[in-house]
Write a structure and sequence with these properties.
The structure is a homodimer. The first copy, chain A, is α/β, with parallel strands linked by helices. Chain A contains 18 helices and 19 strands. In chain A, 42% of the residues lie in helices and 19% in strands. In chain A, helix 3 crosses helix 6, helix 4 packs across helix 5 and helix 5 packs parallel to helix 6.
Chain lengths: 558, 558
Amino acid sequence: MPADLSTVLLIERHRGTLDKALETIRTREYWSPYAEHPKAYPDAEAGKAAFEALLGHPFELDQPGTDEWTGGERSPFGVELGVRYPHPDPAVLLPAMRAAVPAWRDAGPEARAMVCLEILARINARTPEFAHAVMHTSGQAFTMAFQAGGPHAQDRGLEAVAYAYAEQVRVPETAEWTKPQGKREPIGLRKTFTAVPLGIGLVIGCNTFPTWNGYPGLFASLATGNAVLVKPHPRAVLPLALTVAVAREVLAEAGFPADLVCLAVDRPGEGLAKTLAVRPEIRVIDYTGSTAFGDWLEANARQARVFTEKAGVNSVVIDSTDDYRGMLANLAFSLSLYSGQMCTTPQNLLIPRDGISTDAGPKSYDEVVADLAAAVDGLLGDDARANALLGALVNPEVKERVETAAGIGEVALASRSVAHPDFPRAVVRTPTVIKLDGAKPDAEAAYMSECFGPVSFAVAVDSTADGLELLRRTIREKGAMTVGGYTTSPEVERWLEEVCWDERAQLSLNLTGGVYVNQTAAFSDFHGSGGNPAANAALCDGAFVANRFRTVEVRRPA
Amino acid sequence: MPADLSTVLLIERHRGTLDKALETIRTREYWSPYAEHPKAYPDAEAGKAAFEALLGHPFELDQPGTDEWTGGERSPFGVELGVRYPHPDPAVLLPAMRAAVPAWRDAGPEARAMVCLEILARINARTPEFAHAVMHTSGQAFTMAFQAGGPHAQDRGLEAVAYAYAEQVRVPETAEWTKPQGKREPIGLRKTFTAVPLGIGLVIGCNTFPTWNGYPGLFASLATGNAVLVKPHPRAVLPLALTVAVAREVLAEAGFPADLVCLAVDRPGEGLAKTLAVRPEIRVIDYTGSTAFGDWLEANARQARVFTEKAGVNSVVIDSTDDYRGMLANLAFSLSLYSGQMCTTPQNLLIPRDGISTDAGPKSYDEVVADLAAAVDGLLGDDARANALLGALVNPEVKERVETAAGIGEVALASRSVAHPDFPRAVVRTPTVIKLDGAKPDAEAAYMSECFGPVSFAVAVDSTADGLELLRRTIREKGAMTVGGYTTSPEVERWLEEVCWDERAQLSLNLTGGVYVNQTAAFSDFHGSGGNPAANAALCDGAFVANRFRTVEVRRPA
C-alpha cells in the first residue's frame, strides 16, 4: 500500500519552509511560519471543545507494551483532568521502537525533515487545543499558553529540525576521491556517507513548558533518525501526549512505523525516567528540570548523550538608565509574567546601595526598590490584567516558597492572592520583592540559590563593580539562563559583556520596551548558552544536533 | 610594539588555504596543502641535524610554573634521547594559561584560524625534523614517521581548524531583528554574537601517533579560543614539545600570549594526566589511549567535554573476491604496516570455514590463511623492505604480546625478528597470524579482546552470515575503528553496510590496490565514527568542534 503522504508531496508542502528556516538561522533575523496571534486561528471554539472531549477518557495511542493505564493530572486552575495514559513495559516498548529505526534511517535527512515539518504543521493547526492543554497543566494564563505553548514551541521545534538537517547534509551523499601518484595511475575511491542515528532519544519533559522545552530535543532526535520516547512530567502529560499522537499519525501516513515516537507516563511516584534513562537502547536524553536530577542523569546515563537544562540564578545589574520608567515597567513585567515561573525570570536585582543615576534624577537604592514595587503594583492592580499575566502557581512547592519568602528579608513588595473569576480554585499570586544586603553573609544563602517562582531579591551591592563581581560569581557557581543590565555607561556595558563572555551567559541590555529578558525568539536568540552550570546545551545550535547521529562512510575502489 | 605577524599579513598568507579546506570538507575530494613526499622538503639533512641537536639537552619553553625538569624518553630504535622537559606546577601554570584566554577570544575566529595555519605552516617546514622525533618516540619507520607524523598529521590539524572556523561563523557577528507589531511600531533589537571558549583544553597524547592523534584536538580547541595544555605520552614527548614550541613562537610573534599553548610532562610514574584532567580550569579533554583510562576520564572529568579514542577490535569479513592476489597483498600490507600498531589495523579476519570463492577458484579456509601468510612472507621477505614497513615495536608490552600469541591457537604465520642495520637494539617483528575457531567458546576470549600489535586472528566462521553476526557483536561490544569486507555479492555488500550503519562503524570494501583499510585521508575520510565503543568522537566533524566554544549573545534595543 503506498503511503498517503509521499515525500514528493511533503517536499512540495514544506521544503520552502525548511529553506527559510535554514536561511534565518544564519541571518538571525525575525521570522516565524507559525502565526502568533490567537485570531489567526479560526477554530478557537472547536479547539476548546476538542480539549474538553479529551477529559475523563483514556488517551489511546495503540503503542506496544502497554501494561496498564495511569494518569492523575490536575490543572493548576483547579480542574480535574481525568485523562488516563498508557503505561509502558520498557522491555517490550523499547525493542519495538528500536526495530522501527532502520526504515527511518534509510529515508534520509530530507524526507525526515519533511515528515517533522508535517508533524509541526498539524500541531500548529491544532494550536487552540494545545493551548488549553498547556494552560491546564502548566498553569500558564491562556494567551501565554497559546503563544509559548503553541507557535513559539513550534518555532523551536522547526529550528531544531533545520539545525539537524543542516548538520546531516554537511557531507555529500557520495564523493569521488582521486589521489595523484606521480607518474603512476592515480588511486581512486568511491565513497558514500550516511547519517545514522544512535538509537532512541528520551525526552524528559518539564511541568512549566511541556511543549516549548520538549520540542527541541524531540525534533532534533527525530530529524537525525532516532526514535523518540517522550516521558512527560507527571503533572504535564496532555500537551506531549497530543504531540505524540500527531507524530504517530503523520509517521504512519507517510509510510513509517508509528512506533518511532512513543509516550511513557509514570505510575504515581514511580520515577520511570530513572529506569528509562539507563536502558541501553536510550542513546540521547533531553531533560529540563531540577539540578539534582539533571546531575544524576549526567553522572549515570553514561550510555547516552545527555542534554540538560537545570536550575540557575538569573541576575539584573542596575547601574544607571536614561529611561527610568521604561526600565521599571520592563522589569515589573518580567517579574510578573507567569508568576516568575520561567527559567529565564530574573531573580537577583543587583543595585548599588548608594543608588543609581537616571533620567529622572539620582535614585537611592530604597527608591529604586520602592518604585519597582509600585510598578509591579500598577501593572497588576487590575485583577483581570493580573490574571492574564500571572496564570496560576504550577504546584504547591511554589506556593510554599512564596509564602515563606517574607521570612528571608525585608519585604519591599508583598505577594498578594488574586481571585480568578473562572477558576476559583486556582492559586494566583503576584510577585514579592525582598530586600537583601549583598555584604551580609547570612543573606547570601538566599540570593545564591534558585528560588523558583514569584520571588525576587533586591540585593544591595557596594557599587556597580561589586555587582559585576557578584554577577560573575553567581553565574560561575550557580549558572544563569539570562542576565540583564541597565546602564548608560559604555564602560559598564563593556564590563557586563566581559563578564558574560567570560562566564558564558546571554545578556540583554537596557530593555525598556516590549522585549523582556525572559523571552527569546527562535531562529535568532539562543536560549541559554550551554556554557555555565544552568544548562549544558543551548537552544539551538550545532552542538545541540551534531552528536545525535554519526556519519558512516563506505568506500570502494572507483 | 606592533606584532611582527599582523592579521592582515596572515590572511594574505593563509586565507586561501583555509577556504580550500572549507570547500574540501564539503566535497570530500582529494586535497592536501602539505606535500607528502620527503623529496619535496629540501632540508632533509638540516632536519636530521636539528633533531640531533635537541638530544641530551633541556627543552626550553619559558613557561610559567616550572618546578623541575623531567624526561627519560628512549627511542624504540634503541637510542637514548636524553631530552629534559619542564615539569609544571598546575597551580601556577593553569591560572597563567587561563589569564591568556580573553585576548585570544577577542581576536575572533578568523584571526585565530590564521594563527593556527601559520603554526601548521611552520611545523610543515620542519617536517624532516619532526619525522625523526616521531620515528624515535613511536618506533615508526622513517617514511611513515615522515608522512603520518608530518603532512598527514598537519592535514588533520588543518581539517580541525576548518571545522572549528566554520562552526564559529555559522551565526553572524551582528544581526538586526525587527518584529512587526501589527499597526504599532515594530520592535527592534540589535544583537551581537560572540564565540567564546570554555577555558583550557587538555590534549593527552599517545605513544604511537603523537602528532597525528594529537593535532585534531589541539587545533580544534585552540581555533575555538581555548588555551591548550599538551600532556604527551611519557614515551612520546619530543614531537609534541616541538609542536608546543612552534605554537608559542607564532603566538608571540602574532601579538598573543605564548602561554595559550603549554606543555606538561610527567615525572616518571606520576600520572599527571589524572591530576590535570579534573582541574576546574580544564574544560575540554582530547585523549587517545587505553579504554581503561578513557573510561576513567569520561566518568571523572565531569567539568570537561571529553573526546576519547580508545581500544577497539577491527574485523575484516572475507566472503569472496574477484581479485584474490590483490586482496591478499592488500591485507598483508595492512597487517604489516607499523607492525600492526595502528588503532585501525585489522585484528580479526572472519573467514567461512567452508572457504570462499575467488577469481582463482574456490579457496578453503586453510588455503586462504596459508596464502595470506605467504603474502606477508613475500612482502617482508627482504629485510630492508621489512624494516621500511614494520618500524620497531613501540614498547615491551607489545613485544610480550606477540611472543605469547603462539599460545592462543594454531600459528598460521609465525612472527620473526628482523635485524635493523642502523639500530641493532631495535625490536622489529613481523606479524603473526593465529587460527581460531569462531564456534569454540574458549577462542572467544582471544578474538573478542584487542590484542594491540602484530597479532591477527584468522577466525573460522560457519558462514558469511555468521561472520556478519560476529562482526555486529564485536562492534557493539568492543567497538571498531575500521571494518573491512571482501565480497563479489551485492547482497553481502548490502548486509555489510547494514551492520556498519546499525553499529556505526566505517567500512572499506574490496580494497585490493594502494589504499588500505588502516589509512584514512583528512578532508575526506572520517577516522572512527564516534558511535561505537572504540571512540566517542570522529576526526573530524561538526560534533568534534561544536561544543568547544559557546555563542554568547548580547542584545540591545535597536
